[in-house]
Each structure stands twice: as C-alpha cells, then as structure tokens.
Amino acid sequence: MQPLDTLYLESTSNPYLEHFSTLIDLAVMELPGQLNYFEPSYDSERLFKSVGALVYVIDSQDEYMNAITNLAMIMEYAYKVNPAINVEVLIHKVDGLSEDFKADAQREIMQRTGEELLELGLDGVQVSFYLTSIFDHSIYEAFSRIIQKLIPEISYLENMLDNLIQHSKIDKAFLFDINSKIYVSTDSNPVDIQTYEVCAEFVDVTIDLFDLYKTAGARNNSKAIKNKETTPELKNVAQLGNDLIIYLRQMIRGLALVAVIRPNGTDMESCLTVADYNVDIFKKGLEQIWKSSRVTPQEESINS
C-alpha cells in the first residue's frame, strides 16, 4: 500500500489481529484508541500477560497531553500483570514537522511521560521512543528495532553477521523479512538510514521484477516467493554508480540477506565468489539456529 492510500483507510473500530512469521512467530494486534481497557467486560489482564511489547502511537500533529496520560495509566496496569513487557512509543506523523519541531516534540513527550510515570511510582520503567512517518522508512526502522527485542537469538545473529562482513568485503548487512521490509537483525556497525533505505528498496525491486531476474529454467510463478512456497532461491546483485555492490540472497522462512559490498579495487566476480561461499556458511548457521530455537510454540504478541 502506498502512503497516500492510507488516507482512505477507516479508523480502527475493533481489535484486529495479524500474524507475522519469520525466525519467531508473532501476532500483531491493533487496538482502537478509544477502547477502554479497564471495563469489566474486557479481559485486560489476559491481554497484557500475553504480549511481549506494547506499541503506543502518539500523533505528533495533534494535542497529545491526554494521550500521554492515557499511556501512563495503561503502563501502570500492564507492568502489574507483566513486568517483562517492552513499552515502545511511536511519535507519528513527524513528516509534517520541521527538524526543530521534531526534536521539540520528542523532548516534550519524553519529559511529560517521565513526569506522569514518576507520579505513578514508575520512574524506573524503560520506555523507547521513535520518530516515525509513513512517507519514509522510519516506521520500518522502528518496528525492526521493536521486533529484534523479541528474538532470543538476536545476539547470535549479530555475531554471525559480524563474522560474515569481516570476511566478505561487506560494509553493512541486513537480514530482512521479505514481505514486511522489517530487518530482524543486522551487524554491530551503526545503521545508516540511507543505507537501510537503499537495501529495503532493493528488496522491493527484486520482488516486483522477479520474472526479469530469474533464469529461463526457473520461470515459475513469482507470487510463490511471497507465499513462501517451494521456488528456486531468490538472488539479485546490482552495482551502483559509486562501485558499491548490493547483494540479495534468499535465506529461510521468508528471510533474505541484503548486503552492501565495497570492492576496494577487487573485481566484481571475485567479490561475489567470496560472498557466495561465506553466505552459504551463514545460511547453514541460520538453519541450525532455527532448528535449535528456544522459542516455544506459543506465539509471542505485540500489542499496538
């Protein structure tokens, strides 16, 4: 869905549940803002006990003082029934604000939230804040960080990616969920938003134009990639004008490795030969992590 198409979406009036499967199985539940979680008819205790993260959206272009008070009340109850819950706040619609106003809004919301929590005796509670918009990749970046907190094997994945980039002339590597463009892991180097955007767009281009990239002997239905059916391995390579190489390779469970390779004078074929060999090893390691995953069959949930 294009960002402008969201203008025609109706407001959420009833709870909506959607499943999300990659290295772990998640259930994302969207709840309407006007829902009263403390009504006797609503089983709030069961809801908050079952979630791994509470995602609370604040409209940065609207009056948000009441929203902050409501957030504090929800957090007070949620922490009583589930002290391990992660609280994530999206300061949304920042595309309409200047850089100075963005910083001011974030500072004020963080300060007001801290004051509300202090009054409720929750001064030690950790809350993460993200500036987001549907008109850029900030919303994907935020949810990527939220999802990573729910993956028990995240440290192993980061170490594996660090080892991969160290031996493959790779500047940056992401492990993307193909359908959502959320990256479930990356190496320990800082994430540059422009690099992330290039890699995310490369995933889109590869999926949308899959028929143009696959070999003549593998002309099957490209929709099978999104449906996770058995298909030839998805792979795509492109060289940018600055000689950087974007490398995409399908992994397991709807995941794809996307890496930025810096040749540094080495010819492209040699770089890709080394990358292919090391990515094969990485994929085998990923399969082992999945087989020995500590995640139980019971799904974790995100409540937003």
CATH class of the largest domain: Alpha Beta
CATH superfamily of the largest domain: P-loop containing nucleotide triphosphate hydrolases
Structural class: alpha/beta
Strand content: 15-25%
Helix percent reads: 25-40%
Order of strands in the sheet with the most strands?
Answer: 1-2-11-3-4-5
Q: Low-confidence runs (pLDDT<50, min 5 residues)?
A: 294-301
Order of helices and strands: EEHEHEHEHHEEHHHEEEHE
Overall 3D shape: elongated
Count of β-strands = 11
Remind me, CATH topology of the largest domain? Rossmann fold
Judging by the overall fold, what is the CATH architecture of the largest domain? Answer: 3-Layer(aba) Sandwich
Q: Could you explain how this protein is built, in words?
A:
By secondary structure, the chain is α/β, with parallel strands linked by helices. The protein folds into 2 domains: 6-150, Rossmann fold, CATH 3.40.50; 153-219 and 231-292, 2-Layer Sandwich (Beta-Lactamase). It has 9 helices and 11 strands. The strands form 2 sheets. A 6-stranded mixed beta sheet has the order 1-2-11-3-4-5, with helices on both faces. The protein starts with 15 loop residues before the first strand and ends with a strand. The relative contact order is 0.14.
